[in-house]
Each structure stands twice: as C-alpha cells, then as structure tokens.
Amino acid sequence: MPRLEPVVEDAPRGRPRDPRRREAILAAAIALVAEVGYDRMTVDALAARAGVSKPTIYRRWPGGKSEIIVDAIRAKRADGGTLPDTGTLRGDLIAYIRGATEGFDPHVAAGLIMQLQSSPELEALFREEVVCDEAARFESLLTRAAARGEIGEGVVTPLFADIPGSIIFTRSLIRNEPIDDAFVEELVDRVLLPILPVKKEQAPHVV
Amino acid sequence: MPRLEPVVEDAPRGRPRDPRRREAILAAAIALVAEVGYDRMTVDALAARAGVSKPTIYRRWPGGKSEIIVDAIRAKRADGGTLPDTGTLRGDLIAYIRGATEGFDPHVAAGLIMQLQSSPELEALFREEVVCDEAARFESLLTRAAARGEIGEGVVTPLFADIPGSIIFTRSLIRNEPIDDAFVEELVDRVLLPILPVKKEQAPHVV
Amino acid sequence: MPRLEPVVEDAPRGRPRDPRRREAILAAAIALVAEVGYDRMTVDALAARAGVSKPTIYRRWPGGKSEIIVDAIRAKRADGGTLPDTGTLRGDLIAYIRGATEGFDPHVAAGLIMQLQSSPELEALFREEVVCDEAARFESLLTRAAARGEIGEGVVTPLFADIPGSIIFTRSLIRNEPIDDAFVEELVDRVLLPILPVKKEQAPHVV
Amino acid sequence: MPRLEPVVEDAPRGRPRDPRRREAILAAAIALVAEVGYDRMTVDALAARAGVSKPTIYRRWPGGKSEIIVDAIRAKRADGGTLPDTGTLRGDLIAYIRGATEGFDPHVAAGLIMQLQSSPELEALFREEVVCDEAARFESLLTRAAARGEIGEGVVTPLFADIPGSIIFTRSLIRNEPIDDAFVEELVDRVLLPILPVKKEQAPHVV
DNA sequence: GTTTAAGCGAGACGGTACGTCAGGTCTTGTT
DNA sequence: AACAAGACCTGACGTACCGTCTCGCTTAAAC
C-alpha cells in the first residue's frame, strides 16, 4: 500500500533563516537609498544599518544591491494596495495618484530604473509584478467609472495606463518638483479626464 | 615703454588642447554607456576606447563620469536641432517627437537620471540646457499652430511640455518597447491633440 | 528522604559521545594537512572529510585547528612506541631514528611549528608530551649502551638529544630531501657516534 | 657596422615605482611578523604600518604575504654579510653563529618554513639564495682553518653545514630557549669541533 | 631658433568598496 | 545531551575602480 501523504517532500534541514533579518535589510535598503542615493549606498553600510553581516546579505540576494532594491520595492508595494472608491472618477483618480505617490522616492526610483537596464530578468520581474499590476488597478478604476456611466468603455490601452506614472517620474526625477495636490489636480483635470470620452461635464476645462 | 593693453590676458600658453581628443572621448562615452550601462562603464575603459589617457579626461571634465555624460548628451543635441515644419500641427508633433527620439538610448538616459539625483549643480545645468530648451521648442511648435489657427493660444504649461518626453521615458526605460511610428502616432492622436483646444477636427478620435 | 550520596556526581547524562567521531576527525586532520598544508586546511573541509559537523569538532577541541593537530600527532605517537633493541648502539640509533621518522610529514610538522609560536600553552603541552618523552627515549638508549660498556655515562644533555630531530627537520622542511637509509647512517656514523665518548672503535671514521 | 650598445632596450614608461615603498613594506613586514606571528599578520595592518595602500602591496608581490616575507628575509641578509676572522677556528665558528643568529626571530622563521612547504618555486628560490649561500660561508670558514692547519681538508658535506642552523632552529622554535653565549659555546665545543678531524687540542673536551 | 609652459600617454599611488572565504558560535530538528 | 545541517557574525582576503600624482616626451606659442 503506497504512502498517501509524502506531504513535506523536502524537510528543511539545519537552522532556518531568521525572517526578521530579511525585513531589517529591506527596510534599511530603502532608507539608505533614499538618504544617499543608489550608487552611494554601500553594502557595508547596509549591513551595519540592518544589524546584519555582509555574508548574510549575499546569501539571500546573491546579485547584490540591485536585487535587494527591487525586492524591497516589491515588498513595500505588497502592503498598502486597497483601491480608492470616492464615488466619482475624478476623486478616484486623484486618490489613486496620491496613494501611488505616497512612498515614492526619487533616489530609489532612479536607482531602480538604472538597474532595470542591465538585467533583463530583473526587468521582466519588475514589469510583471509592478507595472502590469498598476495598469490593472488603473483599469479597474476606469471600468467602475464606465459602469457608473461617467465614461465610455474600452478606453484603456497601455499608453493610457502609463500616463500618470510617466508624468510623475518626470516631475520628480527630472524637474525635481514636489508632487503636491495642485499638481495632481492639474494632471487629472487637464490631461487624464480630457482624453477620456467623458459623458458628463465634470471639469470646466477652460483654456 | 609699457604695454598698454594686454588685451587677451589669459593668453593660452604652452601646447593647446587637441580638439580631437574631446570628440573621441565624448563619442566613446556614449558608445560605452550604451553598451554596458552607466555604472558598468569605467573611466579606464573610456580612456582606452578613446585612445586617450586618464589625466587627459580629468583635465577636461574634473567631475568625472557624470560630467562627461551630460556634456556628451548636450553635444549630441547640438547637431540636429532644426525645428520641423510640415504645415500641420499633427505633422509637426510627429516629426518633432521622432527627431527627439532619434539617438535616444535607454542606458544613457537611465545613467543620466540617476546622476541628476545626486548632484544639484548637474541637475540645474541639465534642466537649463536641455529641459527648458526642449520646452521652448515644443512651445514654438504650438505658437506656430496657434498662428495658423489650428489651436487656441497660451496653452503651454510645464505639464504639457513634459508629456511627450515623459511617456517616451516610460516606454523605453520601463516597458522596454520600441518607439516606432505607430506609437508616436498614437501618442499624438490620442493624447496630445485631444488635450489641446483644437479648432478643426484633425484626428477622428473614435473610441 | 534526602539523597545521601550522589556518588558519581558527574554522571554523563544524555547521549554519550561517539568515540568513532574522534578517530575519524584526527585521521582526516592528518590526511588533510599532509595534502594541502596546515593553513590551507579548512575546518569545513575537515568536517566534510570526517563525515562530521562543525559543532561536533568544536565541542571536542574548543581551540580549533591547532589543538586538533597537536592531539592528532600525540595520538599517532601513542601507537608505535616500543624502543628498539638491536644489541649495538649504532643499530639502536639507526632503528630509533627510522622509527621516529616513519610517519613524519613536512606539512604537518611545519604547521605545528608555526602554531607553537603563537600559543604558549600549546607549546608547553607539546614540549611535555613529545619533546621530553623523546629525549627520555633517546637517553634510555644511551644508558643501555653505557651499561654494555660501549660509551661512558652521563653524556646526555638537552643539546645531544635534540640533534637527531633537528637535523631531520632541516633535511625535510628546508632542504626537502628524503630521509633515506644512507642519510640516517651518515648522521649516525659522522655526527652522533663521534661526539659520544665511544670506548671501542665502532665506525672507522676515516676522513 | 652594428650598434655596439643597445644598452637600454626597454625604456621604462609611466611613473616609476617609488623605491622607498619597497623598503617600508619589507621593514613593516618583518616587524609585524615578529610582533604577532605570521598567520596573525594581516595585509591591512601591513599596509597601515608601512603607510601604503593594499593595491600597492599586491602590485609588487602578487603572491601576498608569503612572497613578501621571503623577500624581506632575503633583503635583510643582503646587508650584513662579512665573514668573521678571529684567527682560530673556534673563534670563527662562535662569531659566525652569533652573526647568523643576530636578527633571528622565531615567528618569522616559523612563517617562512610553513610557506616553503606549499610553494615549490618559493622553496627553490629560498634554497638557492639562502641555504646554499650559508653553506658556502660555512665552508670557507673551514677551508681557512684547514689552510691554517687546524683541521684536515674536505670535511664539509651538506650534513655538516646544516648542523648549526638545525640546532638553532630547534632551540628557538621548539624549545623556545634563548641562543645565548653559553649555548653557542656548548654547540661549538661539544658538537662541531669534535666531529671535525682536529689536529691540535683546542678545547679540553672533558666529559 | 631657443625657450618654456602646457598637453599628453603611461602607470604608480591612496582610498573605498566590492564580493568571497574561513573561523567559530548558535539555533533548529533528529537520534 | 550528542549530532547534522546550516544560518549567522566577525574579520580578512584579493580585486576593481576612482581620482591624483609623477614621470618622460611632444607640441606650439612666446621670446
């Protein structure tokens, strides 16, 4: 009679990895990059800040800094993903953009972007986990608005979903200006809403 | 009799700098960054590729890699800066975007962006020389269109001028997809023209 | 009712140590040092070779590598310690030197010597257990010869007892030449016997 | 007519190595090994002590510590190589041994010996430069004594030349006792002179 | 035509960080 | 409690790159 339950096929042997180490390292990584920038962050400093030794870092992220940052960003996105629901498309868009911009840090973003260029697998990972997910969230906002009759249907293309993120990147990384309420409202009222087939007049849009 | 006018007080004594060195270095810099990425480009490799010694590089760009890259981008923009004039706003926009995207390289752009985060003076320099200039070129396109009566006047804000560049950055650096004609036309027809107060119908814009 | 006599107060509780571990580790240590040299032998490799885990090693030899090697050498000397008795001093000396040189390995010896320099307690231990013991063995050889009337009495000083070992060290560690029969005979006939107050002519000793 | 003098065939290009660096490093190496022992000397400490950077060390001695020590010993022997001449063989021997023992340090010697075991080329180098040279010096002492009629001729074999060094090694590295005058005299009177075919009575040699 | 100041290639140099390796300790679960 | 496995900290390793410096040579303007 065969064994029916070989459930745990590979029993983890030896001392298990301390999960607190992981959290400490990722948090320290985000903090350090935000403070001094990606390329001025050293692994030694990261280890010291996280209260951890270098080998422990390289044991978990053999790829070094770049791997850590991508992982940290992913982990950060994991907590905090409720879709706003204000009742109107305009309110939803503003709330959505504010939410997505919350923990945004130019240093972190710039470091990430550069690493994406030199690691196809990193880039694929990031696109799947972050970009597509963000696009889906944006789309559900619009779908909900269409259900309410605010706009027509089927208007989301990759191009549309990229607009908010793109403009925020430029604003923050290149113009180095803050993402304040005035800017977000201008973005929504003068760019996003006008290019959607709005059924009811919502923003006056006087030039 | 005393010399009355030492007119050119900073008469260059000694051997003058060989201008060919500069070109060789800038070209090698662009090529190298495009090949291996900004942070994997070493100054030694740059010197070897340009057939030049390291002191020669640092004598001209004391700031090192970042300075060189900004200078290279600026130099590249210098040749090829005629404003397109196709007769219609749509044609101008497409031609303008195509032109600006010509020699665009993701590696170079990503490296530049990261350096901007950690050097305020570099960032100021770049904003003045490139961002503002580009905005001005974009504005003159619209002004011309307004003069032709295609659109209203005074519609250019920093936000508007940033849109094309922003979207192209995202497309290239994050989505890693090519900037082809179809994309440029979609960008113009579905985003740029709709948010301008177009007077005549130009693109059908059927959803 | 109180316990009156916990006679064996250090009753070994729990699982007793497996004696086979000790042998395996010592054997592996000697083999590894002989193969790659003392400082290139790693404890991990030692553990792997002995089929044992690192904590098992450190539980028994808290001092690490150096302690293990000294212990291994001592253990090796333990088996094989019968004094030769050939009837003549010359024969005894030759047999004694051959025996002492049996398992001699330059790597092991060199590693041991270096460790002795940086650990006084190790050095004391080794001197007591090995050096003095060897001197005693050498002395009893001479005492026996004196009883036979071959030589005078009271000729053994630390200096005398050190000579054979010293020369063998140099021969093996510095000159890197083998300790063969010809060499041992030359050592006995040209050095050891001449400096002892021999009563009967034994070795012709023609120069 | 051929050029008679192509003397400087390969002109040294670039900045020449600063010879003071070499001296500083070798001196620091000897000092450090003597202080803390070979295996506890770190390259970082060596660099700090010599006021030099690590790459400078590895540029000159790619083999690391072992190469440096051998080089240092060789350099040290270079200065201070006059043969003693006291008029008698006994005086010469004592002076010679004292001289050779002058800067002798157990730590340095032990480190060297261990390194010799794991680098055949190092070992060959050392044997040529030091061992053979020392043997030659010893031989010329005896040759001079033979010319004076103190001893017979042709008595030097590798074995003889090794005796003083061997015994000193053991005395210092294993017994850890000082090489004082009493010891040197005992060595000369009780070992070296007796095994040479002395013609005149020189040392009473009472047992 | 000298002089002379600078450009220039080569490469040593101090410094900083890298990613790795080994020693020795500690924490699991198992025997 | 011993044991195997392996995570962990510490500290040193040897290397890579940066930006500076010192050479000896070349070049062109100034004298």
Tell me what the structure shows.
- 4 copies of one chain form a homotetramer.
- Chain A has helices at residues 19-36, 43-50, 54-60, 65-78, 89-101, 106-117, 120-147, 158-174, 181-195.
- Chain A folds into 2 domains: 19-74, Arc Repressor Mutant, subunit A, CATH 1.10.10.60; 81-105 and 112-195, Tetracycline Repressor, domain 2 (Orthogonal Bundle), CATH 1.10.357.10.
- The first copy, chain A, contains 9 helices and no strands.
- Residues 1-8 and 200-207 of chain A have low confidence and may be disordered.
- In chain A, helix 1 (19-36) crosses helix 4.
- Chain A is an all-alpha fold and 207 residues long.
- Chain A starts with 18 loop residues before the first helix and ends in a 12-residue tail after the last helix.
- At the A-B interface, helix 6, helix 7, helix 8 and helix 9 of A face helix 6, helix 7, helix 8 and helix 9 of B.
- Chain B binds a DNA duplex (31 and 31 nucleotides) through residues 11-18, 21, 42-44, 47, 51-56, 58-59, 62, 64-65.
